[in-house]
Amino acid sequence: MVAKQLSIFLENKSGRLTEVTEVLAKEDINLSALCIAENADFGILRGIVSDPDRAYKALKDNHFAVNVTDVVGISCPNVPGALATVLGYLSAEGVFIEYMYSFANNNVANVVIRPISLSSNPTAPLMIPHELMIPITPAVAMPPIPMWRA
Amino acid sequence: MVAKQLSIFLENKSGRLTEVTEVLAKEDINLSALCIAENADFGILRGIVSDPDRAYKALKDNHFAVNVTDVVGISCPNVPGALATVLGYLSAEGVFIEYMYSFANNNVANVVIRPISLSSNPTAPLMIPHELMIPITPAVAMPPIPMWRA
Amino acid sequence: MVAKQLSIFLENKSGRLTEVTEVLAKEDINLSALCIAENADFGILRGIVSDPDRAYKALKDNHFAVNVTDVVGISCPNVPGALATVLGYLSAEGVFIEYMYSFANNNVANVVIRPISLSSNPTAPLMIPHELMIPITPAVAMPPIPMWRA
Amino acid sequence: MVAKQLSIFLENKSGRLTEVTEVLAKEDINLSALCIAENADFGILRGIVSDPDRAYKALKDNHFAVNVTDVVGISCPNVPGALATVLGYLSAEGVFIEYMYSFANNNVANVVIRPISLSSNPTAPLMIPHELMIPITPAVAMPPIPMWRA
Predict the structure, then answer these.
(1) CB pairs < 8 Å spanning A and B
(2) From CA D92, how far away is CA D69, in angstroms rounded?
């Protein structure tokens, strides 16, 4: 599944982060996954939200610098080796990874992936092979990998 | 709950990432949360694993540059506004955030937080207030926040 | 010497970078040092300019997310070992480094340093010891280190 | 001019940075340009050195994680607008920028550029147009831009 990820500039990590969550809370928008790419002085909040278009507008209205990026969402079993299998599969398909974030919960691990082919050329068509958009069953003994829904 | 986070240098994002997951899979170590802090040329994999000491050793044995960092794990309800409440609570307690990553799954959102006070002075005692280590009940109507277990 | 560094969010690395330089050029402001702290999707331009206040205003007027940070500027001789001497001196004075950028030109290397003590607590007084603000003469045979002027 | 840039992982920003400069000083290697791409917990030192091969070996021998990256070095006049002209020229040639760092000194500004085309596909041939390797004279009134030598 391809999802819209928001990237939000946090000039001041803690303070602005709290503000972002408050803006989204006021709009009743859920932040289902997030990750901060930070430097010494500031951070970028990358997040998957329940309503990207409305979140984008609300943040812009509150004077945040926001950007939208295409990412891919995958669910895989929460067992040792499952991620290695998924990454091996992607690599065999020619999909290389810029960054990712993931969290396991009980039986599944939800993964957000940003493939290299999406970012190197902003005007290029979406390069994620179609097989990634549907449940995949790698060769090793592993249950089918359902798509994760934001 | 304070957890040990591993930071692993990936000179080559995609290739080394796959190798890390393979090294951990071979050791039967589960990667329950991860996030890549990347640059144009390389990445740093931040991860919470089922056995940090053994993971550290296995990665070192395979010539990875690895580092261990203290982080705090929290679970909160997966509803709009829950994260704003947690961040407001932390801020009121004087805990500021360097970075965090989080993922919701069904009813809960698991959060890994790296507070500023842990990193600015490597020799400083752990500055996380005791209240964070146990379930907290903020003033707004929200179920108690159980600690997340890696 | 303490200088004002601008940090400018570039949602799109190449395009926005060109725009920043054009905005500054139009205002006849010189960019005497710069460094991009980038991620896969965006960048932050850190720069020392000839007129920080006017640059800040011009960039804000052109809808850039801009931030101001205190940094320290030092000049040292452009010879092997000079930087090791400066860093050893700073470390002995309890000054730790968040980041720096530097460039040698003929006889001198100009260095911009962001010390940890300036960023970990935004309300803390400037923690750079006075000795760093004036020419310092380390113990090893090295010419005096004049302050660099932005 | 294409130069070899070293990227060195600093698990601990201040301490390891000092060690890097000491290793290079002992080998009588000069660090003519550097820039730290940092996170909250660690840094990556990007540097141009007088002898990349020997620097690489010395750092590896001292157990640093080191990487080599191709970058482009350019000199341009140290006047407002010169960088905008260079970036406009590069953009017109289809060269986009991942990151760069630059420092002015008296009459010239030395610039290190990492173009996108070099990093998105590690096996791609060098995509820097030949015109960048030689002095270029943009249309605006500006003295010729000589190549910078590491």
Answers:
(1) 149
(2) 24
